[in-house]
Specification:
By secondary structure, this protein is α/β, with parallel strands linked by helices. It has a domain at 3-250: Acetylglutamate kinase-like (Carbamate kinase, 3-Layer(aba) Sandwich), CATH 3.40.1160.10. The protein has helices spanning 16-31, 46-57, 63-86, 119-126, 154-165, 198-206, 214-223, 285-295, 321-333, 335-338, 365-375, 399-409, and strands at residues 3-8, 35-40, 92-95, 102-104, 113-116, 130-134, 137-139, 146-148, 169-174, 195-197, 227-231, 239-242, 264-268, 271-280, 303-305, 312-320, 342-346, 349-355, 382-386, 389-395. It starts with a strand and ends in a 17-residue tail after the last helix. It binds adenosine-5'-diphosphate (ADP), aspartic acid and magnesium ion (MG). Adenosine-5'-diphosphate binds next to loops.
Amino acid sequence: MALIVQKYGGSSVADAESIKRVAKRVVDTRRAGHDVVVAVSAMGDTTDELLDLANEVAPIPAPRELDMLLSSGERISMALLAMAIHSMGFEARSFTGSQAGMITDSQHGAARIVDVTPVRLREALDEGAIVIVAGFQGFNRDTRDITTLGRGGSDTTAVALAAALGADVCEIYSDVDGIYTADPRVIPKAQKLDHVSTEEMLELAANGAKVLYIRAVEYARRHGVLIHARSTFSSAEGTYVLGEGMKNPREAEGAVMEEPIVAGVATDFSHAKITVAGVPDVPGKAAEIFKIVARSGANVDMIVQNVSATGRTDISFTVPKADAAAALKSLAAEQNEVGFQNLVHDDQIGKLSVVGAGMRTHSGVSATLFEALSAGGINIEMISTSEIRISVVLRGDDLAEAARTVHTAYGLDGDTDVTVHAGTGR
Ligand code: ADP
Ligand code: ASP
Ligand code: MG
């Protein structure tokens, strides 16, 4: 008998029928003799709809109230799932994040888990119940307020529960069969990975692969939680995310795992590019500019500075689209002090990243990327690398086509198209 944590995303609990399907999966796991703890997301696109509603009544909703509102989405699905399980003759008990002991810091909208005290969950498990926990939410002890963990945060709830309860595995159920070499909605010929290392998954998640939330992967790495990403809509085995020293459960069954050089390709439309043009080419200007950007709260991703021929230079950088307005406003306010000539805002960019631990030991990985883009006639605007990743910024309109070309160039294409079972991709 094992203790299994299962997380069901919004597309898995989108309507009554789907909730009954999830209830059946949970009950089947229980019938197999395991203890089950479930973390659920809000139904379908509920969180987006609640956000839209908030923005209709207030241009900048108060963060405390926004968390109150958004956390209600997961309460609905947890109670409905518990009811569906009851009607199948099994005992299930639902808990809010705060009842489950999900203690966070006080940062509304992006709270971090600081402690998990699952006393009530243990009691319920000891009494033989299936435990259902509302994902994405926690409680701050100082303010005594409800917090949320950031978009996609139910993944973190599940991993944190798995760590606190010492679960054997944390299964993250979604509308695709696992983690693929690319987003199957962008590249239908993507192939399912048997496993991916935590460091590769962190790079993929940080660069647009929302199949797992980056903070959940970080948490799993820190606490040694085994993640199995799989589908609610099929019984196929999914993808294991393996931390250092972790054994692939399938290797124990005798499977031999080959390590590819490139694990996958990620695409990201969520950034904008800001160019500070005509910056005096003297020491200290970059420091001034990025201090101003940091003060605006914007998170800078990529940076390029062109060589100057005229004593002035252009500095371009990317930030999440949502941060761009604040960064531009702060820079504009200090134009005279910094002495730059003008600002250009470009929100029509896309970022393509190639990720693979094999890059450390293989040469020619970047050459393949640049050749593929050149053959496709696609212009590169910015480049950045880490030890196991190469990213390029392109025109947003070119991104999907570029990703397909690059995916083919690395030999990642499968023979058939992937089925995406549900969800709107929102
Ligand atoms: P959930 O609502 O269950 O949390 P998400 O929408 O957050 O599901 O994540 C699943 C989606 O992630 C898929 O439908 C797919 O479009 C997208 N995705 C992006 N990159 C990948 C990838 N490399 N492998 C699988 N899915 C991916
Ligand atoms: N419902 C939240 C969201 O849509 C959390 C989650 O689904 O993980 O972001
Ligand atoms: Mg998700």
